[in-house]
Specification:
24% of the residues lie in helices and 32% in strands. The chain is of the alpha+beta class. The protein has one domain: Mog1/PsbP, alpha/beta/alpha sandwich (Protein Transport Mog1p, Chain A, 3-Layer(aba) Sandwich). Strands 3-4-5-11-10-9-8 form a seven-stranded antiparallel β-sheet. A three-stranded antiparallel β-sheet has the order 1-2-12. A hairpin with a 6-residue loop joins strand 10 and strand 11. The longest helix is centred in the first third of the chain and has 29 residues. The protein is globular and about 75 Å long.
């Protein structure tokens, strides 16, 4: 028994302030965790995109896109070819909560590239006919595989990081990733990924491309281009007579 009347070995009573402090910390932790879980779940859910049916060949393309990306209007400066089908997907502008979580909890801050500059990160999907293929950019072999024209790689210092051939929905498909150094074609180093799909029995081809210009949004675009490529399906149909 101590002088205060408390038996030896009995822990001192816990103060109300300490209980309040512990509870407050738990509330703050939950408040920080819930937005993070929401952002993670939202960024990993996807929606399906079904492209228009081409009246000449009867084909159309289907794929999934992250809900972190939205279909955007295509500025005239981006229409550098007469594609029969084209779609741009830009990173969804973050909400006020997402900006706060990113800036204060994750310590991430990025400077957005001005819209319409031609350099903002985006995923591009387009389709065209093989007889209108830009032969200075793409080539097709006798097996029906379309590929990037890399004949000028050494001139511009372009390095092929990855090249895979596969079959998607029965169609010859090429996945290419190249690294373009700074100071040549572009002011900064970029990495470009492209997947090119060509149905064997049709004169149409599809391209999905994304580029990494070195900031956080562009890195996400590069990852999303690969995710779309993994989900893509080319669906045959009946062409209109």
């Amino acid at each position: 028994m101590t002088a205060t009347g408390i038996p030896h070995g009995t822990p001192p009573p816990r103060s109300g302030f300490r209980r309040f402090l512990a509870g407050g910390c738990a509330v703050v932790a939950c408040g920080a965790l819930v937005p993070g879980i929401y952002l993670y779940t939202a960024s990993h859910s996807r929606y399906r995109v079904i492209g228009p049916v081409d009246p000449k060949t009867g084909y159309h393309i289907e794929y999934t896109v992250s809900r972190g990306f939205v279909k955007a209007a295509i500025p005239p400066s981006h229409r550098d070819h007469d594609a029969i089908e084209e779609a741009d997907f830009n990173p969804r502008p973050p909400s006020a909560v997402a900006r706060w979580v990113s800036g204060h909890l994750l310590r991430r801050n990025s400077v957005p590239i001005p819209a319409g500059s031609g350099d903002e990160p985006r995923v591009v999907q387009f389709a065209d006919y093989t007889d209108r293929m830009p032969m200075d950019d793409l080539v097709i072999d006798d097996q029906g595989y379309i590929d990037m024209d890399t004949s000028n790689n050494q001139v511009f210092g372009i390095r092929v990081v990855r090249r895979d051939r596969r079959v998607v929905s029965g169609c010859p498909t090429t996945f290419v990733q190249v690294e373009i150094p700074a100071g040549g074609l572009y002011q900064s180093r970029i990495v470009v990924s492209e997947i090119m799909i060509h149905p064997r029995d049709a004169s149409i081809y599809y391209v999905i491309a994304g580029g990494d210009y070195g900031d956080s949004d562009a890195a996400a675009v590069l990852r999303e281009a690969s995710e779309i490529a993994e989900s893509v399906r080319v669906v045959p149909g009946s062409a209109k007579k």
